[in-house]
Amino acid sequence: MLCLVSPESFVPADHPLRQIKPLADQALQRLSPKLDAMYAQLGRPSIPPERLLKAKLLQAFFTLRSETLLVEAILYNLLFRWFLDLNLTDAVWDHSSFSTNQERLITHAAAQEFFGELADLAREQGWLSDAHFTVDGTLIQVWASLKSFAPKW
């Protein structure tokens, strides 16, 4: 059976990510020259940095504690596919490829610039406040210890 539908048709009109997606896309548009420079001219195509950054945003919003869980969620969650501009038939990258390509974002400071731009845009919308801040400390601990892992023999 052939069925032509878009992931967007499954996202409720009042879902909070509908307001966040245009801001994320606007922040990525501002960073476009820097992100374009990160693409390799030869070799296998890499995961677009725009999708990696938006995926990291989803990881933070939905408190996914690892790239493996993030990639798994992208595979079956239509909301995530819509947010990342993936069609239902688009392949989802492997979690190891995600981690490898994520290193490039950190090296080029693109992630810091993206989240800074996004925070500025959210501040312009009046969405940020200094009154209260809540974060999942376990997720921060995982991200902080990412580079300090040493195997025990």
Essential attributes:
globular, 0% strand, mainly alpha, 153 residues
Write the layout of secondary structure elements.
Elements: H1 17-30, H2 32-37, H3 49-61, H4 67-76, H5 78-83, H6 95-107, H7 110-124, H8 137-144
Write up this protein.
- This protein has 153 residues and is mostly helical.
- The protein has one domain (14-37, 45-128).
- It contains 8 helices and no strands.
- The chain has helices at residues 17-30, 32-37, 49-61, 67-76, 78-83, 95-107, 110-124, 137-144.
- Helix 1 (17-30) crosses helix 7.
- It is globular.
Determine the fraction of residues in helical runs and give it as a percent range.
55-70%
Question: Can you write the helix and strand succession as a string?
Answer: HHHHHHHH
Percent of residues in beta strands: under 5%
Largest sheet composition: none
> On the 0-100 scale, what is the average pLDDT?
81
Q: How many beta-strand segments?
A: 0
